[in-house]
């Protein structure tokens, strides 16, 4: 995650419309009467899970004490113990977050430090690799139970662990008044992730897993979490491989000064302004009030990982440059059309539609946080169930023209295609004096709609350049393998109006190919084969630290493409995404 002041809520709306049902229902919410039970003994006590045709599932296992009362804004403590057998057939509560659309219904649970374990049904003679998943969500949204591990576990013969961690103000508020005796505050969500990794080290063997072969992997903000753990001393020795999907360690996290400024602004907004009573005031606020005040992406207070000198002593981007990272093999990559989701999000809420009464939009600059309104209006309603949280975040353009008021999409927003003139206006607003170069590099043509062209600009600028730059930096120090997901027919899951352009391999499109999710449409036979191939690749990398293609080298830039017609190795990733062009502009 970066501290870029743009209306990320646009893309959060898109992600919610696509993925919301996965959190509302949960892929593992299978009728118990169709399954048999299984009991495993952890170091806290015995848990009873379920057995399905090809996998075993254990849900809602507490890996930390509920962070309530004095434990709010404190490092996670070891989980509770119990006698007897604990039911582990239902997921635990997700951490407090805004839910649904509009994002105005905060969940209230602070008792949320739970994880889920999925294993193959059969036992094995040797311990299996363990993959621990860190979900995305802009460090504001999401939960581990939304990602069913059975596809990976059964198809890859591995153990899959998915994790909840504290989010938003409860997970990342770095106010000095909340500091402990060591003077450290913030990064509680990162500390939760480390606590989950320690739980895996202690308990993997009980589920048939190998505590000496753990892969940590994540997507979007989850990939940022992986970057943070690669640079965090507290995670040393807790994992042995890393997979980063659709984000890059080249993107900076907040400095301590930025995090403190954000925390002080948060305290002001929530009404805790007395310097002598800030801590008590904050601790007296309800979870719902805290989550509401943090707000939605782009218009709330930017909270996330911070270089605090302790949990995260160095920015992962700096650690990548200097080599101060845990030396583990890396698999990293992105989706070919990442930013088409962002462009669709703009279309979905009517930002492209004429608004004669509204003044023209103005661009929000990466370097101008003061240009962010203190209360950006949000759509009043969107046809997505209001009871479900937004599960994923998407890094979006560094600057996006924002109208002074967002078109009210009630009851159903009108989807207006981006026009050629709007495309040029967007590029000029985003890239300033470089805009002519960008427009020359990405000209409009009749073969592709303007939305697809803007999607290509943003994908190459916001994803391909930093992901590939980070991959080259990794490759100088550790075995590094790069992929691109490129199924141009990846199912697009949404309610309401269909996109007016082909969404291709958009941000989040690879997730149903790896995880079991309830929202996914039925794959074609070709897509099922592609899913099998990706599951095999992810699990083989976890098992051996190698992928089925050559490692990345500066003189041999191999990138594996996962496409509907089957994977292939290609060397033109940089050319296909205008990598040298963006490097010349300095991003």
UniProtKB/TrEMBL annotation:
Q: Where is the Carboxylesterase type B domain?
A: 38-342, 440-546
The entry sums up its family as follows:
Belongs to the type-B carboxylesterase/lipase family.
Q: What is the lineage of its organism?
A: Bacteria, Bacillati, Actinomycetota, Actinomycetes, Micromonosporales
PANTHER family named among the record's database cross-references: CARBOXYLESTERASE
Q: Per its UniProt record, what InterPro entries does this chain match?
A: AB_hydrolase_fold, CarbesteraseB, Carboxylesterase_B_AS, Type-B_Carboxylest/Lipase
Question: Which organism is this protein's natural source?
Answer: Micromonospora ureilytica
Tell me the segments the record calls region Disordered: 354-418
Q: Where is the signal peptide?
A: 1-31
Task: Write down what this protein is called.
Answer: Carboxylic ester hydrolase
């Amino acid at each position: 995650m970066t501290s870029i002041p743009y209306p990320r809520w646009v893309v959060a709306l898109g992600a919610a419309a696509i993925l919301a049902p996965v959190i509302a229902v949960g892929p593992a919410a299978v009728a118990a009467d169709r399954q048999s039970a299984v009991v495993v003994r952890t170091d806290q006590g015995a848990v009873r899970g379920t057995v399905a045709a090809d996998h075993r599932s254990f849900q809602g296992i507490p890996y930390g004490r509920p962070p309530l009362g004095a434990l709010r804004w404190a490092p996670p403590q070891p989980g509770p113990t119990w006698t007897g057998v604990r039911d582990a057939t239902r997921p635990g509560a997700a951490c407090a977050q805004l839910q649904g659309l509009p994002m105005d219904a905060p969940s209230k649970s602070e008792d949320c430090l739970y994880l889920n374990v999925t294993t193959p049904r059969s036992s094995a003679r040797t311990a299996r690799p363990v993959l621990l998943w860190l979900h995305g969500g802009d460090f504001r949204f999401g939960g581990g139970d939304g990602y069913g591990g059975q596809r990976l576990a059964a198809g890859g013969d591995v153990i899959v662990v998915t994790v909840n961690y504290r989010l938003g103000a409860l997970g990342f508020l770095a106010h000095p008044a909340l500091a402990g005796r060591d003077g450290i505050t913030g990064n509680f969500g990162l500390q939760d992730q480390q606590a989950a990794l320690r739980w895996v080290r202690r308990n993997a063997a009980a589920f048939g897993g190998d505590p000496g072969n753990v892969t940590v992997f994540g997507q979007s903000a989850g990939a940022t979490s992986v970057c943070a753990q690669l640079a965090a001393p507290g995670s040393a020795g807790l994992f042995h491989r890393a997979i980063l999907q659709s984000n890059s360690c080249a993107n900076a996290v907040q400095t301590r000064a930025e995090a403190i400024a954000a925390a002080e602004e948060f305290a002001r907004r929530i009404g805790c302004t007395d310097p002598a009573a800030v801590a008590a005031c904050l601790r007296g606020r309800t979870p719902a009030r805290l989550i509401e005040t943090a707000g939605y992406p782009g218009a709330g207070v930017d909270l996330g990982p911070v270089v605090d000198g302790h949990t995260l002593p160095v920015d992962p981007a700096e650690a990548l440059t200097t080599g101060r990272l845990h030396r583990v093999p890396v698999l990293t990559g992105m989706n070919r059309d990442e930013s088409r989701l962002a462009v669709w999000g703009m279309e979905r809420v009517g930002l492209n539609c004429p608004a004669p009464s509204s003044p023209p939009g103005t661009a929000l600059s990466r370097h101008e946080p003061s240009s962010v309104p203190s209360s950006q209006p949000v759509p009043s309603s969107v046809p997505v169930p209001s009871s479900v949280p937004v599960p994923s975040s998407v890094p979006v353009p560094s600057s996006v023209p924002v109208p002074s008021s967002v078109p009210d999409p009630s009851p159903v927003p009108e989807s207006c295609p981006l026009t050629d003139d709007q495309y040029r206006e967007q590029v000029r607003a985003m890239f300033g004096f470089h805009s002519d170069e960008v427009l020359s590099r990405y000209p409009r043509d009749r073969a592709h709609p303007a939305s697809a062209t803007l999607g290509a600009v943003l994908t190459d600028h916001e994803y391909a350049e930093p992901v590939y730059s980070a991959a080259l930096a990794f490759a100088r120090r550790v075995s590094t393998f790069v992929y691109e997901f490129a199924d141009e027919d990846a199912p697009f899951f949404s309610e309401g109006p269909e996109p007016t352009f082909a969404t291709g391999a958009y941000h989040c499109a690879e997730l149903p190919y790896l995880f079991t999710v309830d929202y996914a449409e039925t794959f074609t036979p070709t897509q099922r084969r592609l899913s099998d191939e990706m599951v095999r690749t992810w699990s083989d990398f976890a098992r051996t630290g190698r992928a089925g293609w050559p490692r990345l080298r500066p003189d041999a830039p191999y990138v594996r493409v996962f496409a509907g017609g089957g994977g292939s190795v290609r060397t033109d990733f940089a050319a296909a995404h205008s990598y040298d062009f963006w490097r010349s502009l300095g991003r």
